[in-house]
Amino acid sequence: MKKRIVIFLLILVVPVAVLVAGGQKAPGAVEQIGDIGKIQWDKPMSMRERVNGLEYVLPEGWEKATEGIGYITFTNSGALEYDPAMAESMKIFEELTGIEARAMVVPESILHTKQSAILRAKSDRLDLVFMTTETENYIDYVKAGWLEPCDILWNESIENDFPQAVLDALNQDGSYYAFMYICGGAGDVLHYRKDLLAKAGYDRPPETFDDLVTYARKLTQDTNGDGVIDIYGMAYNAGERYATNRCFNAWAVALGHEFVQNGRIVYNSPEAVQALQLMVDMRNKYKVVPPGVNTYGTTDVGQLMAAGKLAMGTSMSMNWQFVKEVPAVWEQYSMTYIPLPYVGAPRRIAGGPSMFGVSAYSKKKAAAMLYLDFLRSMQAARNEWLMELNGRCNKNIWNMPGALDVPFAEFFRECNQYITFPVFENRQQIIEMLHASVSDALLGKGTAQEVLDSLQSEIDLLQD
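RESULT FIELD:
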């Protein structure tokens, strides 16, 4: 009797095993619409030729692969009215494929919270995922299993188009899970007024941080003698987490700080302490920055300079666009690198890239990967650069018509050779803690050393 039961069970089990081995959906796998395996990425020409031409060329087999897919959804940081290049990419992609790219518009301040909630729920609401190496931390998304590997879009010829720093940041555990959409190649820069520097006797921008302090003290002016400062020599932004993080990163990295040392996340190195101490001293000791810098966001430096209230300031490179609206100021405006710790020191720039990857829970991975293929193309890159001056790390962008005609293009191109992308886990949480630490130091609630030592203790709890 027992033998008959065993035989009966085997009859039931074997066909099931055969079905699974024969390609049926395994438990936990996401049921797909379309078939990504039908896309021939290297046809009708090599993948590199397809994506690097003036006009993007669809890979062969895409129609069969995406059959039955009418739209895909992705997260977009901020409103599309302020993102015309992405809006143009969505339009072009739909015209080419008939597949609508729908943007789930989310303010940057809550993007990670919203997006991560969808991904934790293993929801198929998102097909493409927006990430940075900071607030929507790429490596955390990889470690969580939220991203589909996109190695099929990479090969040696594609890799050769990017700086090594990009490849090092994106390659995790031997696989790629994204493409950088905006490189952030210039990072934060030093904005300055050439006429104000010349009037103070300076024929070049400050080269070192010691120069920066000296210049800022001389450039801070009370022109009316009424005790009210009319023009500040310097400014930076430390009023919200993203702006604070970028400023601190830019100064610390320029001074030589490494965020990962011997496999450990470090925020209280001598270079990091020096960066924060400079921020504190400029506000509280030398009083060469507006006292409200601890409330400033990413655009305040540009707006102050456009208003004629500022001689120098460090902030995102995009702030030059505010200055351009005021011709009298624009004629005297320029930008350069964050200063060095000493003359001849190695130059390093902390990049802040944006990137897209395909959600592991998407039911439309074929169409999502196809849109990612388009977003990394030179056609999409050129629109980003010419329409919004959002930098790309693909070296071929500089060979495209008009790419070097925009203001400071040569400077942005040069920046790519110095770029670095600090990549480590739990960065979203660490950025929140960093912002609080910087705020405490600026408001005199602890020295730079004390607040960063305290921050380091909290970080150590995360990595132990």
